[in-house]
Design brief:
alpha+beta, about 700 residues, 4-stranded antiparallel β-sheet
Length: about 700
């Protein structure tokens, strides 16, 4: 028996030892890293799942990074908006609580506060988050707004807010009369205008029979009308009866018709009475359905407006040249009983015109502005609507716009008066004019006339002027003179002065508000608006400002799309949020605009109307800084950002839960159990030691040892 060589077996044994060593090294790596493999190939069939899980986790990490960046931008924006809103409240508080006091620069405390705060607001609107300007819309690499100095005072040939306010003030006449003209005092023709009369129109007398006479065959007899006997033959039908009555119309003044099978008697005019006499045959009256009574027409006498023999005398001016018109009421020759007759007579009035309206109101107007009117007589003139029976030439105080059409200055709205005997004319014509005529009677102490105007900012002002006998006169009072023409002259003087004061106070404040809106309320489709001048004080229209002559306060992207859509971030596979902002969107622009106009308003030390203009300006700024209903507020923008923030918060929570779940799954695919690996290492180590010992013993084996 021969001994075999051990070389090949030894080589296999060594290779086995090497493999076990490799396994031990891999187990040690797994124990140290917690991972099954350093490569996807080592994961076997689960490598695809591992790749998918890692890709999903990477996406979530990307969303988290995006939300972190967006969160920083939104936090900065929210902080800036909160401060801007607070600035508005601070300035409003300064306006409310600061008495009017001007320093050496002509600035009030609210103005100085506004100027400092405007600089801060502009800085806040140019806030950057990394490389992006938060309030610039799509133009994230461009500052949102110009510098405060350029906005307020211009940039070279480009006009700023202060210049636009100055031009608008001139165009509105805020340094003069508000583009209104108080006309010289004028006389008006005397006039009496009746009101409240209730006279019915003239109407002829009518008598309608109650019997159906379509099959009439009369019993015959006599019908007496207005004293005239009319014979009705035996067997006469309706047509024969009508013909018999109609044959006597020239004598009786009463005609007959058959209407709806009934006999209808009608007087020929509004003076004629229908008197069916008692001498009529009773059977005839019965078969015709009429009664033996008298029926009156409708006229001045039958309505008791006047009575027989009363008179009315209408005189215009003196006689000569104008002879009075003498009217006698009654039914005699030349006397008047109807409205038609009275109107005919009034049409012959010398020196003027006179007429009755449909209700009987009498109007008398003189032709010349120097003639007086007097209505006398025994008739009751109030029945014709006359509260007074005399009138002298009037004294007209009128006010008009300087030119039409024009967008500038105060616009006439209405005029009302309770001055004794005064009449008013509402705005009419081109340019519009309105007036008050004091008439011939002086007003009494305390009576007023009110002029109402519309200002450029849409507000209205009531200028109430009061008649007074006190000395000295108070504000907006006019003296009652010895005669109405003197009083009218005093009214005109006061009106002229009061309109000038109103222009320098309320109008000037309104003009500043509108100028600020013209400058700030802009976008890509609406450039700033400027007065079409020079000259500015006679301008009538606005023109577009250009990039060459007017500062554009907002320098970011000025598109017409929703500002929020100018910055979009995807925070989940199917969810995006919009968080963009533009400094010129209404809520922000409104606050900047009103802060700026407060800072730009001027009150020179020599201005005697400064305190009142400041009060008028404050009355506009306080509600503006409160933000009127229907205007976007900064809080609305913050609410939009808050909604986006809520969406991000919810997404973060979902991503956290999803990440934890995916990490567990990935660990199940790629990870190992430390206990299992340790046990495998212990087992493998034992096997390796045993194999090494066996191999060592084999290497020591020789033929001698074997034998």
């Amino acid at each position: 028996m021969g001994a075999s060589a051990i070389g090949s077996k030894s080589a296999l044994q060594v290779q086995s030892l090497v493999n076990m060593r490799r396994q031990l090294d891999d187990l040690q790596r797994q124990l140290g890293t917690g991972k099954k493999s350093d490569t996807y190939a080592g994961l076997g069939l689960e490598r695809g799942l591992s790749v998918g899980l890692r890709s999903h986790l990477t996406s979530i990490d990307s969303y988290k990074d995006t939300m972190t960046m967006v969160g920083v931008r939104m936090d900065l924006a929210t902080s800036a908006l909160t401060r801007i809103s607070q600035v508005g409240r601070d300035i409003k508080s300064a306006i409310v609580n600061s008495p009017y006091s001007v320093d050496g620069d002509g600035k009030t405390i609210p103005q100085k506060t506004a100027l400092a705060d405007l600089s801060e607001v502009i800085g806040l609107l140019n806030t950057r988050a990394g490389d992006r300007y938060v309030f610039s819309g799509l133009a994230g690499d461009t500052p949102a707004v110009e510098t405060m100095d350029h906005i307020m005072y211009g940039d070279g040939a480009k006009a700023g807010l202060v210049q636009l306010m100055s031009e608008r003030l001139q165009a509105d006449g805020g340094d003069a009369m508000g583009r209104l003209v108080v006309a010289p005092l004028a006389s008006s023709a005397a006039s009496l205008i009746g009101t409240g009369a209730a006279i019915s129109p003239d109407a002829a007398a009518t008598v309608t029979g109650s019997a159906n006479i379509s099959a009439l065959s009369s019993v015959g007899g006599t019908l007496v009308i207005n004293g005239t006997p009319i014979t009705i033959g035996v067997g006469d039908n309706a047509a024969a009866v009508q013909a018999a009555i109609q044959a006597q119309v020239g004598t009786t003044g009463v005609g007959a018709q058959i209407v709806a099978n009934n006999l209808v008697l009608t007087g020929v005019d509004a003076d004629t009475v229908i008197d069916v006499g008692g001498g009529s045959t009773g059977a005839v009256l019965t078969e015709l359905g009429i009664s033996a009574v008298a029926t009156n027409p409708t006229n001045l006498l039958t309505q008791s407006t006047v009575t027989q023999g009363q008179t009315m005398n209408v005189a215009v001016g003196s006689s000569p040249p104008n002879a009075p018109l003498a009217i006698v009421f009654g039914t005699g020759a030349g006397e008047i009983s109807t409205m038609a007759e009275l109107n005919t007579a009034l049409g012959t009035l010398a020196g003027g015109t006179a007429s009755l309206d449909v209700n009987g109101n009498l109007t008398v107007t003189a032709t010349n502005v120097s003639d007086a009117i007097a209505v006398t007589g025994t008739a009751t003139m109030s029945n014709f609507g006359l509260a007074t029976t005399s009138a002298a030439a009037g004294n007209v105080v009128s006010l008009s716009e300087d030119v039409a059409p024009s967008v500038f200055g105060m616009k006439l709205s209405s005029v009302t008066s309770n001055l004794t005997s005064s009449t008013t004319v509402q705005p009419a014509g081109s340019p519009p004019a309105m007036s008050v005529d004091l008439g011939s009677v002086n007003p009494t102490n305390g009576q007023t006339v009110q002029f109402r105007f519309t200002l450029p900012d849409g507000t209205t002002e009531n200028l109430v002027l009061t008649a007074s006998t006190t000395t000295p006169l108070g504000k907006n009072e006019f003296a009652i003179g010895a005669t109405s023409d003197i009083t009218a002259a005093n009214l005109r003087t006061t009106l002229n002065a009061s309109v000038g004061t109103l222009a320098k106070t309320a109008l000037a404040a309104a003009s500043a508000v509108v100028a600020a809106d013209n400058f700030f309320n802009t976008d890509a489709a609406n450039p700033p608006q400027r007065v079409n001048g020079p000259p500015f004080n006679t301008a009538t229209t606005m023109i577009d400002g250009t990039a060459a002559n007017t500062v554009s306060w907002y320098t970011g992207e000025a598109g017409t799309t929703d500002a929020r859509t100018t910055a979009t971030a995807r925070i989940d596979q199917s969810i995006s949020i919009n968080y963009g902002m533009r400094a010129n969107e209404e809520g922000i622009r409104w606050m900047v605009q009103n802060i700026a106009v407060v800072a730009a308003m001027e009150y020179p030390l020599t201005d005697t109307n400064g305190a009142e203009r400041s009060l008028e300006f404050s009355d506009r700024m306080i509600p503006n800084l409160n933000v009127p209903q229907g205007t976007q507020k900064i809080e609305n923008i913050q609410a939009d950002l808050g909604n986006a923030g809520s969406s991000m918060k919810a997404a973060k929570e979902r991503h956290a839960q999803t990440s934890a779940t995916l990490a567990d799954m990935l660990n199940g695919v790629e990870g190992v159990s430390n206990e299992q690996v340790a046990a495998e290492m212990l087992t493998l180590n034992t096997r390796l030691q045993a194999s090494l010992q066996t191999t060592a013993m084999l290497y020591k084996t020789s033929l001698v040892n074997y034998l």
